[in-house]
Design a protein that fits this description.
- The chain is α/β, with parallel strands linked by helices and about 400 residues long.
- It is built from 14 helices and 18 strands.
- Helix 1 packs parallel to helix 10 and helix 10 runs antiparallel to helix 11.
Amino acid sequence: MSADRLPLLRARVLGGGPTGALAALALAQAGWRVQLIDPLSGPQLQARRRAYALSHSSRLFLQRLGLWERLQATAVPFRSLRLCDLEAGRVIGFGLAEVGSGASRADGAAAVGWILQHGPLMQGLLEQLEAHDTIRLSLGAEADRSSGPADLVVAADGSASPTRQTAGIRRWRLPYGQGCLTAQVRLRGSAPDQAWELFRREGPFAVLPLGDGTAQLVWSAPAERLRRLEALDPVAFLDALAAALPDSLQPDSLLERPRVFPVALELARRFHRGSLALVGEAAHRCHPVGGQGMNLCWRDVEELQRQALRAASGELSPAAVAGAYGRRRWADVLLTLLFTDVLVRVFSNRQPLLLKGRRLALDLMRRSGSLRHLSLKAMTLGPCRLAARWSE
């Protein structure tokens, strides 16, 4: 089909969070006209207080979209990751040597990963959306205004997705015996470019650098214990936090009220129905261990754009975009959910045989740079991209 006879393609994205906003930008760059709808206003979309760990899979995609330079300015790189199994008494360090050739380039890749706070991220994405002449924003009071039929509808409206429910797409849900507490604190004893993943009997505990001596905590533990922690006054909370962290890490002050939310493994039974495509947490949700959640969601967007580009070039029917996307996403999503689930179950356990196996495995990894490199690549690129590179 010649370029002048290609159809005008229209997409509607439901949900204006980080994944929905990125999906709208990616589809617009693929040559589609896009309407982004969210019941929250722009300021409300930016108001959420949390931080995300971005991996190299997300960095590479953002670079292709031309967004990385803008977002990198507010991202905090971490060049060291210390994995501490406090029950097994083992510590492994991951650094730029394990990242590989990407760490030596002068393109901003000299990091194990990056921490990006929600506010600056959403501000940057919304400014890009507003500047794009093929994107229409319907936010807040204008959220119910539809632009008519769409060739593709993208549900990016979260784990409770009303769009998924209306479409009759069921999901599997496996709750963990844990909740997750997030908070930001001022911390001593950690280098400004160092992240921590602590494996404790009650659950994983991540400490993510935010710059200026502050850190984001992602603390997994039994939900009842976390609710008690959430109710403590700041001094008592800091005392409990100091007892949970390694001796080298000392919390000085609490910068925000801790918040607790449930964690579960969730998976939609299908990722599409007709012209509807589920992306991000509308399709899947994993335990926050290893910082895989946002990166998995953005790999959804990457695949959606790939199929949208095929439709824009005439290679694929617009009606087939959602189905092609859905079929292509299963392997990566299943492997990532399996990886995070195994990490939680194996490392939140003091069964003697498991402890012995963990010590042996971590000792082997500590001695083998190749194993550390392979493990970090799987975490930062995603299992399917790693397998593709391995087969090349």
